[in-house]
């Protein structure tokens, strides 16, 4: 399928990727699927168009790119909580605070796509996945979340419904969405390709 991603700044991508869960050297009960723990780019999926393998330059691609609002300013994405889910692409994730800015951005995109007649979705919007784990390795999901908590890579505050991600000497409570990428999500995760048109958002700083 095709997707629009809200992506952190390059510096924040590097920080987040440095602490993303890695494939363990061995599993206690069975060999892990080769599809578990692929390398991923931190992002929030704004919208996806499933069941299409369209290439850049096709009407579907053009509709996706045309749905990106012009003069969009960078958007703050605040981390809310660590969650274990039951879907491959949402195995262990961070729920993102549902702010007006994020909702407005997605609403503009969805409204524009709706005029083109393309079916679209964005399950559990907004969230940022930390790893993808297959159903056959489902026990890894809870183990991974617990590891993140036990090692203090993730610290949650139930009172304020917020969390932080410790990336070395830096503690992130969220990220600055500074680019929107159009991505072709077909085949193995590590072969997914961002379209060469990356839309840089105007900085609020």
TrEMBL record:
Q: GO terms for biological process?
A: cyclic nucleotide metabolic process
| Gene Ontology molecular function, alphabetical | 2',3'-cyclic-nucleotide 3'-phosphodiesterase activity
Q: What InterPro entries would the database entry show?
A: Cyclic-nucl_3Pdiesterase, Cyclic_Pdiesterase
Q: Which SUPFAM superfamilies has this protein been placed in?
A: LigT-like
Q: Which domain of life is it from?
A: Eukaryota
Q: Name one Pfam family in it.
A: CPDase
Q: What is this protein called?
A: 2',3'-cyclic-nucleotide 3'-phosphodiesterase
């Amino acid at each position: 399928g095709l997707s629009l991603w809200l992506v952190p700044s390059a510096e924040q991508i590097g920080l987040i990727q440095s602490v993303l869960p890695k494939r363990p050297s061995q599993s206690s009960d069975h060999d892990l699927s080769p599809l578990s723990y692929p390398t991923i780019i931190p992002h929030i999926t704004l919208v996806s168009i499933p069941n299409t393998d369209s290439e850049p330059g096709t009407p579907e691609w053009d509709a996706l790119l045309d749905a990106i609002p012009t003069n969009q300013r960078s958007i703050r994405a605040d981390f809310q909580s660590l969650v274990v889910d039951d879907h491959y692409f949402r195995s262990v994730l961070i729920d993102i605070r549902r702010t007006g800015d994020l909702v407005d951005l997605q609403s503009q995109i969805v409204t524009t796509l709706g005029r083109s007649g393309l079916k679209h979705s964005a399950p559990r919007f907004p969230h940022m996945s930390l790893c993808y784990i297959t159903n056959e390795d489902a026990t890894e999901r809870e183990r991974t979340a617990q590891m993140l908590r036990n090692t203090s890579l993730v610290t949650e505050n139930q009172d304020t419904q917020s969390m932080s991600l410790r990336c070395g000497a830096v503690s992130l409570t969220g990220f600055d969405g500074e680019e929107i990428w159009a991505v072709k999500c077909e085949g193995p995760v590590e072969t997914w390709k961002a379209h060469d048109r990356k839309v840089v958002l105007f900085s609020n700083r």
